[in-house]
Amino acid sequence: MNVVLIGAQWGDEGKGKIIDILSAKADYIVRYQGGNNAGHTVVVNKKEIILHLVPSGILHDNKKCIIGNGVVVDPEALIKEINHLKKHKIKVDENLLISDRVHIIFPYHNLLDSLREEKMKGKIGTTKRGIGPCYSDKVNRCGIRMVDLLNEKLFLEKLKVNVEEKNEFLKKIYGHSGFSYDELAQKYLGYAKTISKFICDTSIILAKAIKKKKYILFEGAQGTLLDIDHGTYPFVTSSNATAGGACTGAGVSPANISKIIGVVKAYTTRVGEGPLPTIFDKDLMDRIQKKGREFGATTGRPRRCGWFDGVVARHSAMINGLTEVALTKLDVLDELDEIKICTAYEYNGRKLKYFPADIDVLSNCKPVYESMPGWLKETTSCKKYADLPVKARRYLERLSMIMDTRISIVSVGSRRRETIIKK
Ligand code: GDP
Ligand code: IMO
Ligand code: MG
C-alpha cells in the first residue's frame, strides 16, 4: 500500500502526529518536498519531539526513513536534528536514507531569504530557512546536489561559481560583503564526511519496495494553501505541498499511489503573511491560540486562527483527490458554545463557491457562515467515534459533507492514544 498524507490547509494541521500513528504499520516513510521550514510535532510518552527534516516515522524502530529528491536540505540543520534524535536514543544511522538528487541549502540561501524579506514590499513572512532561494537555484539549474558532495572536485567547482555569483549579487543589490569560498568549502566538505553514508538513489529503493508490496507512507510538509501552484500565491512556500508532489519529489509513479489522506484541522490556522478569510476576533483568537497551543513549531511565531473554511477544504479535497480525511484538534473546540463553518465566500455581492486564484479577490472576500451549537464536553478521553458527543459528531459529519470525503481518523489530543480510528 502506498499512502500520501498531505496538509489540507495552511500547514501545522497535525501531520506529524498522524504520520507517527500510521508509521506503526508502514515499512518506509518518505519526505518529498520542503525542507527545515517544516515543524512536525510528535508526542511520545509525554516527550515532545519536533522533526524538521527527518521523516516522523524515525520514532518507530526499524522503519526506513527517506528524504526524497524533492526536499531541500540544510546539512547543518540536518546534522543538528540527527544528533538531537540520537540523544533521545532514536536509531538514525540504521534507518535514514537521503536521495542523491536532493538540493543543498547554503548560507547564502538563508541570507538572501532574510534580506529579501527585510527589503521587499509585501513580505511573505518566510521561515528564513533559505527554502525559496534554494528552490530558485534548482529551477535555474545552478543548484548543488547531494550527489555533488560525493565528488569533491566537481563540488568545489560548482561552489566556486555559485559563491562568486551570489557575492556579486549580494554586493550590488544589498551592499553585503558576501561569503568566503574557502570557509564554505571547508564547512561543507566537513558535512559531507558526516552525511555521505546516507546518500543513495532512493527512487531505486522505493521501486524495489513497491515491487515487494511494502507499505510506503509519503509525509507531506506545509499544506495545500502553501503549495507553489495551488496555494495563495505569492504567500506560499516554494514547493508542491499537494499530493502530486509525492510522485515527482520521491520518484514514484502516480499509478502506484493507493490512498491520499488529507490532514484537516477542526478550525483554520496560518503562520506567516497572506489572507485568512475566516480569522477570529481578538478574544476568540487568544482563547484558541492558548488552548490549541498555536505557536509555530519552527519559528515560535503565533499562528493566526479562524473558523473552519469550507471553501479551502473543498479546494484541497479537489486538488489532492483526497480519499480520506484525518480530522485533528477537535478537542480545542470543546468549550465553545457556538461554532461557525464557512461554506462560501462573498465577493462584490457575488457568492464564490470556488477558491479564487487572485489574491486581491481573496483578500476582499467575506466568509458566508453557517452556525452549529458547540458540544461543551471534553472529547480527549473519547476512545471510539460513538463516545464523542452527538453535537461533535454532527460537526464532523457536516465537515465531511462539505469536503465530500470520509473522515477516517479523529484526533482529540496530541498523544498517540488520543486518536479515534473510525471503522
Ligand atoms: P504539523 O506541522 O502538521 O505536523 O503540525 P505541528 O506539529 O506544527 O502542529 C500541530 C500541533 O498540534 C502539535 O503541537 C501537536 O502536538 C498538536 N496536536 C496534534 N493533534 C492534536 C489534537 O488532536 N489535539 C490537540 N490538542 N493537539 C494536537
Ligand atoms: P509544516 O510542515 C506552516 C509558511 C511560512 C510562510 C510561507 C513561506 O510544519 O506544516 P518558507 O520559509 O517556506 O519560504 O515560507 O510558508 N510555512 C509554513 N507554515 N507550517 C509549515 O510547515 C510551514 N512551512 C512554511 O510561514 O508563510
Ligand atoms: Mg508544523
Describe the protein.
The protein has a ten-stranded mixed sheet, sandwiched between helices. It has helices at 15-23, 75-87, 107-119, 131-139, 146-149, 152-174, 181-195, 202-211, 244-250, 282-291, 310-320, 359-363, 390-403; strands at residues 2-7, 28-31, 40-44, 47-51, 64-67, 72-73, 96-99, 103-104, 199-200, 216-219, 259-265, 268-270, 304-306, 308-309, 324-328, 338-347, 350-352, 366-373, 407-411, 419-421. The model has no long low-confidence stretch (mean pLDDT 97). β3 (40-44) and β4 (47-51) form a beta hairpin. It has three domains: 2-99 and 199-260, Adenylosuccinate Synthetase, Chain A, domain 1; 103-195, Adenylosuccinate Synthetase, subunit A, domain 2 (Orthogonal Bundle), CATH 1.10.300.10; 264-421, Adenylosuccinate Synthetase, subunit A, domain 3 (Adenylosuccinate Synthetase, Chain A, domain 3), CATH 3.90.170.10. It is 34% helix and 21% strand. α3 crosses α4 (131-139). It is of the alpha/beta class. It contains 13 helices and 20 strands. Bound molecules: guanosine-5'-diphosphate, 6-O-phosphoryl inosine monophosphate (IMO) and magnesium ion. Residues 7, 11-17, 39-41, 43, 293, 297, 328-329, 331-332, 411-414 line the site of guanosine-5'-diphosphate (GDP).
Structure summarized in a few sentences:
This protein folds into 3 domains: 2-99 and 199-260, Adenylosuccinate Synthetase, subunit A, domain 1 (Adenylosuccinate Synthetase, Chain A, domain 1, 3-Layer(aba) Sandwich), CATH 3.40.440.10; 103-195, Orthogonal Bundle (Adenylosuccinate Synthetase, subunit A, domain 2), CATH 1.10.300.10; 264-421, Adenylosuccinate Synthetase, Chain A, domain 3. It contains 13 helices and 20 strands. It has helices at 15-23, 75-87, 107-119, 131-139, 146-149, 152-174, 181-195, 202-211, 244-250, 282-291, 310-320, 359-363, 390-403, and strands at residues 2-7, 28-31, 40-44, 47-51, 64-67, 72-73, 96-99, 103-104, 199-200, 216-219, 259-265, 268-270, 304-306, 308-309, 324-328, 338-347, 350-352, 366-373, 407-411, 419-421.
